[in-house]
Amino acid sequence: xxxxxxxxxxxxxxxxxxxxxxxxxxxxxxxxxxxxxxxxxxxxxxxxxxxxxxxxxxxx
Length: 60
Known about the structure:
- The protein is mainly alpha-helical.
- The protein has a domain at about 10-45.
- It is about 55% helix and about 0% strand.
- The chain is built from two helices and no strands.
- The longest helix is centred in the N-terminal third of the chain and has 16 residues, at about 10-25.
- The protein is globular.
- The model has no long low-confidence stretch (mean pLDDT about 80).
């Protein structure tokens, strides 16, 4: 499975993904799985990708 570049995401999205990843690692998930969950969560709540016009607010 190939992964796409995360360079087009905003710094806020990177911070959110890092926080989600750390949370899942503390829950006992493997690092690779925690990373996948974190980025799928970012894509889910911020739209379908970095260029999406649709934004859903989840943390405020």
